[in-house]
Amino acid sequence: MDELLADLQHPAPPPHDLFLFLASTAHDMKNSISVLSGTLEHLLVAHSSLPSPQTEPAYAQMAHMLYQTKRLNDNLMQLLALYKQVGKPEYPFDLQPHELGQLVDQVVAIERVLLKSRGIRLELDYDPHLIWPFDEDLVVGVLSHAINNAIHYTCDTVRLAIRERQGWLELRIEDNGPGYPPALLKAGAIATREVAGGINFLTNSVGLGLYFSSEVAKMHRHRGRSGSLRLENGGAYGGGCFILQLP
């Protein structure tokens, strides 16, 4: 009995093949979600040629479906981020120098149709020629997650601002809404701790997303410094601010 209790309290880690299977499944699901998102985006673009697309019930329903598929895509990105974190060689952490212009182009392409369908303007403030080392797939995923979250809080504008500040690359997603509620600010503070204690992964999907975004930040290390994530209210519009810093 004592041995059984010990096994229950300290279960054996999942085998390597299981990790590989889960990662491969997540990739397959992500590909399917991408096809669905692409179809919805094409349909929304086609409906946008109508005189008043926002008044069409089908347009609003497709816009909501697109938002939900992007939320699911965020969750899959978070699973893949965890897989990279445990250091599996099949999906290595890929730290390479990239131009910010290329990064922003990817984020804009991913979010353009959803933002337009919601009537939300995306403002950009960055140096397209600035080069910085980061894992492009993970950072694009983090920024897309932050923009999708900002859609919930903004009135009509989201801002992506990127600049070098005192040896760090600071990437900010800001909105002109009422700001993050206290519960979300608290979730952001918990997510940035070294351990994820206090986050209820079963009921707090926002906390889970913030935790994974924070882990992506910490994966970026340079000369003894690690990336970080924080949430605050204020910024250029006085609303919510999602701030990712990379060394």
Short description:
This protein has 247 residues and is α+β, with helices and mostly antiparallel strands.
Terminal CA distance reads: 50 Å
Largest sheet: 5 strands, mixed
β-strand number: 9
Given the helix and strand composition, which structural class is it? alpha+beta
| Uncertain stretches of 5 or more adjacent residues | 4-8, 194-204
SSE topology:
Blueprint: H1 2-9, H2 16-47, H3 57-85, E1 96-99, H4 100-117, E2 121-125, E3 131-134, H5 136-153, E4 157-165, E5 168-175, H6 182-191, H7 205-219, E6 221-222, E7 225-226, E8 228-234, E9 239-246
Parallel strand pairs: 2-4
Antiparallel strand pairs: 1-3, 4-5, 5-9, 6-7, 8-9
Helix pairs in contact: 2-3, 3-5, 3-7, 4-5, 5-7, 6-7
Any descriptors?
247 residues, alpha+beta, two-stranded antiparallel ribbon, 7 helices, 20% strand
Describe this protein's structure.
The protein is of the alpha+beta class and 247 residues long. It is 53% helix and 20% strand. It contains seven helices and nine strands. The protein has helices spanning 2-9, 16-47, 57-85, 100-117, 136-153, 182-191, 205-219, and strands at 96-99, 121-125, 131-134, 157-165, 168-175, 221-222, 225-226, 228-234, 239-246. A five-stranded mixed beta sheet has the order 2-4-5-9-8. Strands 1-3 form a two-stranded antiparallel ribbon. The chain has a two-stranded antiparallel sheet with strand order 6-7. A hairpin with a 2-residue loop joins strand 6 (221-222) and strand 7. Helix 2 runs antiparallel to helix 3 (57-85), helix 3 (57-85) crosses helix 5 (136-153) and helix 4 runs parallel beside helix 5 (136-153). The longest helix has 32 residues, at 16-47. The chain is globular.
